[in-house]
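Please predict the structure of the following assembly.
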Amino acid sequence: MDNESEMKDPVLPLGRPTVGSAPGPGTTGDWRTSKPIFFEEQCTKCYQCWLYCPEGTIRVDAKGEYPYIDYVYCKGCGVCVHVCPQDALKMEKE
Amino acid sequence: MRKVVQTMKNPNVQLLTGNAAVATAAKLARPKVIPAYPITPQTLIVETISGMIARGEFDCDFVNVESEHSAMGAAIGASLGGVRTFTATSAHGLLYMGELVWWAGVTRVPIVMPVVNRSLNPWNIWPDHQDSMTFRDAGWIQFYAKNNQEVLDLTLCAFKIAEHHKVWMPVMICLDGFILSHTSAQVEIPTQEEVDEFLPPFKPLAMLDPDDPFAHGSLTDSKGIWEQRMSLIDGFNNARVIIPKVFHEYYEKFGRLSKEMIEIVGDINDANVAIVAIGTLGEEAEQSLEVLNKRGIKAVVIRPRVIRPFPKKELIAALRKVPKLLVIDRAVSFGNAGQLAIEIQAELYANKVDIEFHQIIRGLGGMDVTYMDIASEVGKIM
Ligand code: SF4
Ligand code: SF4
């Protein structure tokens, strides 16, 4: 095994993001007791909510579009509501 | 041995402490990020490097972190960001960064980190190997240096070995606190051009990229863990081949280090006893050979300069030639024995080597171990 080309390459622990990769069926939306509601008129498209959502469930399809929330995965943590500078997101009991 | 006297022709020999030798080697290797936190006896490495960076002599980002835990966290992030990364620590600092030392080890992050050996007593700042020995299972390559020149040489080699694409794992260079870190000795310093020829720029195997996102070390099931652990075992087997190759390249270029992972001093073919010790204890044992010779004892010193991967083959080949062996450990695996003794005994048994085995533990918490002490210990078993 002195020949470097015959040596095995390292296996690196790299994971690609996939939709619904949480344990179980992955539908973290089931965890929710309250959900964020989006008010388009107030939104300035600053994308803070997109950046901060720990689940990556706020989507922006293209630059300049409004963000939208994927409720299949939104776990209702309220981070987006907390960071929104425009009060364009509000928490509502399910 | 090449003469290392400073002359008009050879202005590159300087009086350096072990810590200054580390800092000098680090600068020559051109890392791009150094997150580090001071701890005795390593502090002077961090101080020297931050001075070099502040004066504009060293183009590198120094991250002034608030703890060793953050130092290793930042080092992992920087390395994954695609640049050569370096940090340094000692004793309790190493323990505090422990969680992330394991992270870097088992997830293969090629960071180079000197550990300036210091006792792990609640309060004792003097040298023994308990700190780095505690991390010998953490998936890091480990070197132990015998003098300040070897500190510089091994640090430069460490980058090349860590970053080899068939190795790709972190390296710890262990040097005895104070005995090396704070003691000045002659060190021959290679030029920047020579080091640049020896050590090519960092070439990442995987690099964080916002346009092609991946997570590093995320939740992994047992199948994935098995695959990664087996790969790490293969990586260490690859390192057994790559380390001697890099040492040999270094020897060809700079005339120091040999291609061996162990150093043998004395005539192994005519010895009645071998002494095995690492770090400065190994060099001290070399000094005892003359005294022993005068007492009619033909001794030889076998000093592993690499402990991970454990140089089994080389040690067994050497130990087959001697009838008696004294292993001196500077650390203890409590409830068993010195780590070196335990590991060497296992190899002797596995390879059916017929040898009279002796072990002692010395030098804990900075206890002075002189060549006369070593000579008298050898005398007791003859
Ligand atoms: S509530 Fe939490 S999970 Fe749901 S969209 Fe807002 S930040 Fe994301
Ligand atoms: S943080 Fe508020 S204002 Fe900014 S994009 Fe999200 S919803 Fe709109």
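Chain B touches chain A through 28 residues (CB under 8 Å). The two ends of chain B are 31 Å apart (CA to CA).
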